[in-house]
Amino acid sequence: MLNWLRVFSGAIDRSNEAVGRLVSWITLLLVLVVFVDVVMRYLFKTSFVFTQELEWHLFAFIFLIGAGYTLLHDGHVRVDIIYQRLNLKGRAWINLIGVIFFLIPGCYLVISTSWHFVSNSFSMLEGSPDPGGIPYRFIVKGTMTVGYTLLLLQGLSMGVHALLQLLGAETDDEEKA
């Protein structure tokens, strides 16, 4: 059973690691798009709706799809006043309780509500209401469901790591390896 949990958690961790690498390239793309937009605006006194919409679509993609990767690397904001002073088992309890009572229900709420939002957008092939805008807005809306699913999966992995730590089957060094 413990080996299955390790395999399950490891697969999620590797998946979110790969997603994080993809997001890093999208971040580079966003920098280039913003650069082009600024050059066009200030040197040529012109701007395109498509470019401006692409900026916030890429930002939404980075933020939402990268959330699981951020959790994998413990990059989310947390109040460490108590947490950092706890031993491994104390931190594991906090992580397990947080995953069960906050992360899973929160992700479920967003996934279940965004699913209808995205499917409605997809069914009408929603695009930008602005002339020259991005024609497939439903794609960026879909990143809500996908992003929170990746976050939920990473939360499950985090919970498995915490459970393994509480059972003495994993140390902090093994988790980071």
Describe the fold and architecture.
It is a single chain. The protein has one domain. The chain is about 80% helix and about 0% strand. By secondary structure, the protein is an all-alpha fold. The chain contains seven helices and no strands. Helix 2 runs parallel beside helix 6 and helix 5 packs antiparallel against helix 6. The longest helix has about 40 residues.
**Tally of separate helices:** 7
Q: Which of globular, elongated, flat, extended, rod-shaped describes the shape?
A: elongated
The tally of beta strands, per DSSP, is: 0
Low-confidence blocks of residues: none
Please give a quick description of this structure.
The chain has helices spanning 2-43, 49-65, 67-72, 80-83, 88-123, 137-166, 172-176.
